[in-house]
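COMPLEX REQUEST
Ligand: zinc ion
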Amino acid sequence: MKKATGWLCHRISAKLFYRVTTKRSLSTNPILQSQFSSNMTDMENMKKTAANAIDAASKDLHELSMDIWNNPELNFEEHHAHKVLTNFLDKTGFQVQRHYKLDTAFRATYDTGNTDGFNVCLISEYDALPDIGHACGHNLIAEVGVGAGLGAKAALEAGGHKVGKLIVLGTPAEEGGGGKINLIEAGAFKDIDVAMMAHPTDRQNNIPTPKQMAMIQMDITYTGKASHAAYAPWEGINALDAAVMFYQNMSVMRQQLKPTWRTHGIISNGGAKPNIISEKSELVYYLRTPSNAELPALQEKAIQCAKGAAQATGCNVEYSFSQHYANVIHNATLIDYYRKNAESLGMKLFTPEQCDKASAGSTDMGNVTHVVPGFHPKFGIGSEATTHSRGFTVTTGTPEAQIPTLTQAKVLAMTALDVFFQDGAMDKIQADFKKDIEKEEMMKVKL
Ligand SMILES: [Zn+2]
Ligand SMILES: [Zn+2]
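STATUS: Structure written out below.
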């Protein structure tokens, strides 16, 4: 976290620039002048400029997301998506850093030339799922990030505003790879003041604050002893039995878990052949709780399930935890801007109460929101099928999905402009962030 004095400097200079540059742009900039009408404020004009730029690029943006949709790539292998996205951003005037800290990550910057200004980051994801392609719609997330970047850049350029940097950050490997965790550790968010992205979901479910859970991966390996399964099964120690027992232990335990907790997994290795008593078995599980604070309690229960199965079968057990995704902290001030912008474009949003009840998964964006203020809304693309299904893959490649996707790009662009120009925005965002992080720490103490 940055020190308060730094934030104060940022705030004052940006505020001054807003006053000065907005007035100058009103009198001298022909593009802005042509769009003014008597009942529109300066801010509304800038937002309109952003929306117009996104509309003007809609065909190219659609082609870009379809290119990614037609070439689905897995965790850290998103070479095609990296190429087409960086080429696109390069052509549209961003300074592009390819292979930014990770082979398939990138950073595209539009620098307005004010080193005291804020740095606002729009995030693009673009990885797909094994076998079922873009069933999580990350091709649309990529499009939203790039589209929002284009829109906000157009508004800043039109006014000649010197407010800091606008950054489109390409983050690979969300689906279990934790690309953003690697980027955080590599320092990619050190000069970022605010990070935002939006994720598609089913039906018309526009969810500004989905309850994205904390998650950790548990890998379990049982080692037994091989033996002929017909000739001398009594000489073997069956590692598959241990895996099945672990699976059952976890399933039985589920009845006693809080309704907000989730566990689910697969047996990734059950043995070599039916006529060999399994010498080795492996499982991969995800454990999820609403907050980081609750996760250790669930981990401890899972460890007992693993040990119990080992004891019952006589196998040896080894387990490890990795890929810790933090729960998402939605910054209240950012969400307030987001809500107002979305509603101004006619989006019907879930109420806070509906958001609390809506089911959600986990994302490495959660880790980002523990490092810098951010948010991770979901937007409905009209699919009757839910994410991670073949039906959802179909929808993420349809022209119909473009309408909500482009709307979302506009909403994020407008929200980025709010961060740059709304009076005292960064003060409020930072105050929320501080409060949220303190709350997270308090939860850990209580448990
Ligand atoms: Zn997913
Ligand atoms: Zn996803």
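REMARKS: The longest helix spans residues 4-28. The chain has two domains: 4-211+328-446, 214-325.
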